[in-house]
Records
---
Amino acid sequence: MTCEDLHKLLREFVGNELVVESRTTVEVHIAGCPHCGTLVQSYTHVVRIARALPKTRPLPAAFEARLRAMLEPELKDE
Amino acid sequence: MVEPPPEKLTPELVFREYAPRIYNIARRMLGNDADAEDVTQDVLLQVVRKLDTFRGDAQIATWLHRVTVNAALAHRQKRANRQKHENPESDDDLLGSGGSITPGKKWNVGPEETVLAAEQAGIIEKAIEQLPEPFRDVYVLADVEELPNTEIAEMLGLSLAAVKSRLHRARLRMRDLLAPHFEGKVTS
Ligand SMILES: [Zn+2]
């Protein structure tokens, strides 16, 4: 396996989508290639930090007030 | 152990629970507060009016993702039409050809870091804003929102292959953008 080959499999490798044989080939390459080892490490981290970002964002206070006023008939319906 | 009964979906509950999620996705896709507010308002009105037709949390979450993405895309389209009309750009025009890979140095990060310091989160949000829109959309939906690629393909009207390719190239660009902040601080 060349570095080019590894680049093509990077997304699937990090996403755990490769069959065992290909996975092993990649792992063997990484063990002997510091460049690709570094690439896999940083690529993996890019995926991980995205998942760690907040999934909600507080509404700006003025916007929340406007929204509540607009939705008032529905919001007090219960 | 007794499970608490599922909370009834009231407009107030939907507002509290989902408005900050809708706003978050719209803000990341559109990159500014005013547009994100327009989209959030639009989506919330739709959902509150259709509340009776939903049968629970999972269903409403899926629906909201879809409607929010649609509304954000429509909003962006409207803005683009008001400005000048540009030729559609290819992925290569937007990101340079081939998604070339720079070797880089080892990143100075813990292997199991799952909580981001505020400073780090800010750096990452800035990098996301720098992604060209077609790549930002896929990156946000796939890696931040963790939606399945098939669902993203459907939402964005792309083939599955295009989603995978854009996601890969978005990650490589994110890696380039973030490298100055994360790499090379440790000697190894
Ligand atoms: Zn290599």
Note: Chain B has eight helices and no strands.
---
Amino acid sequence: MEFLRPETWDEALALKAEHPDAVPVAGGTDVMVELNFDRRRPPALLDLNRVAEAARWESDGAVVRLGAAVPYARIVSELGRELPGLALAARTVGSPQIRNRGTVGGNLGSASPAGDAHPPLLAAGRGVRVEAASVRGTRMVPVDDFYLGPKRSALEPDELVRAVHVPVAGGPQQFSKVGTRNAMVISVCSFALALHPADRTVGTGIGSAAPTPRRAAEAEAFLAGELAERGLWERGGELDEAVVRRFGELAAAAASPIDDVRGSADYRRHALAVMARRTLGWCWAGYTGLPERSAA
Amino acid sequence: MRVVFTANGRRVEADDVWEGESLLYVLRERLGLPGSKNACEQGECGSCTVYLDGEPVCACLVAAGQAEGREVRTVEGLAGEDGLDPVQQAFLDAGAVQCGFCTPGLLVQTHALLERDPRPADADIREALSGNLCRCTGYEKIMDAVRLAAARRAGEGAQG
Ligand SMILES: Cc1cc2nc3c(=O)[nH]c(=O)nc-3n(C[C@H](O)[C@H](O)[C@H](O)COP(=O)(O)OP(=O)(O)OC[C@H]3O[C@@H](n4cnc5c(N)ncnc54)[C@H](O)[C@@H]3O)c2cc1C
Ligand code: FES
Ligand code: FES
């Protein structure tokens, strides 16, 4: 096995082009488990820890460009205001030790339907793009087109995730995840919600309840429509209980869950409806400043 | 490959390291630092927790080559010239050690917590230690130990 140690992105991309079978390793929290358990014997590892730019983020006030290897712990401590949905999801990843190492680039690289970064990225707005780089150039892949199947993404063998571009939040964002305990759980299922008052749209993301992370498009359109029709974007006010319930139903209907060791398909559908209603309650309270009504 | 880094303030070299090896394996099997324990090799138990450039991480999930040129501090590096670190002493005094397998990781993680937050609330302690599993103590003595260490550190600070 080779251990490749690029110091810059140019070097990293050149090495990836030369060794398309090399497995990138950022935080190692997925890769090292596979190596430790003999599940994977790649011809080479490509260490991204030395590429300083990968661990930086920048914002022009409208969009955050999040370097692929910024660990979750820093997303929590540094980006709670700009990317509240992603920061909330990052807080639920593994344990403090895992959050000190694990990265969004690695979450995208693994493309597991259970990855916690995916739902908030899907919910954060149509502008979310994965910057996929190779010696051939850079592609900006809309996050909706990134996930192709369980653990399959749109990345080509010579490409690396260099950064993710995420619009700065213009409204409340929430994330909810079901698991057996509060820490250290791969989600049974999860749900992210974002309100985008500027263009009066709603964003959602579903985790662990379909072959890929996905949006609940009908639920988004329904809620945006109701808010517009009732003039609620402008004047705030209480959300009708029937609207909240219907939103939950549509969110659950967007999933295509399976029975597995972590939970049954029925349970996942049920939990999604609950999480959709709850996150809506939290977001709406955040938007209007009104106290939250019970959405159980 | 050869890997060179700093362990507990000392420059260390390991030869013939397999490229897919973990930092934990290098520490335990090649450098004679068996304090960090290997229990799960998948990031779940925290018994391999070490500082990597000042951040507590699971050594079983760091590729050996990723440690090149960096600073590692293990449980062996907590005690100073004048004896045990206050965190270690507190674990002893509070009876927070039974079989002791989880202890090295808990000591490093607690040390890191108190460096960052000298007066953690109970909820902060539980959150900070949520990635460290103990099969013996039931955690209550560990909570006591962390509170005791925090109180002693604060006392020392107050005395100058
Ligand atoms: C104990 C434990 C608990 C966990 N809990 C959670 C959890 O709660 N939620 C969750 O979502 N995940 C969890 N995980 C999984 C893991 O931490 C995440 O998927 C994390 O985001 C992986 O990031 P990393 O940097 O460690 O990835 P790595 O292990 O370094 O890489 C993961 C994959 O992505 C590829 N890759 C890495 N960086 C890039 C890049 N820049 N471009 C292209 N490919 C790349 C790698 O080749 C590999 O295939 C957990 C893991 C452990 C061990
Ligand atoms: S041995 Fe590393 S976390 Fe268990
Ligand atoms: S004392 Fe035995 S595992 Fe904690």
Note: The mean pLDDT of chain B is 96.
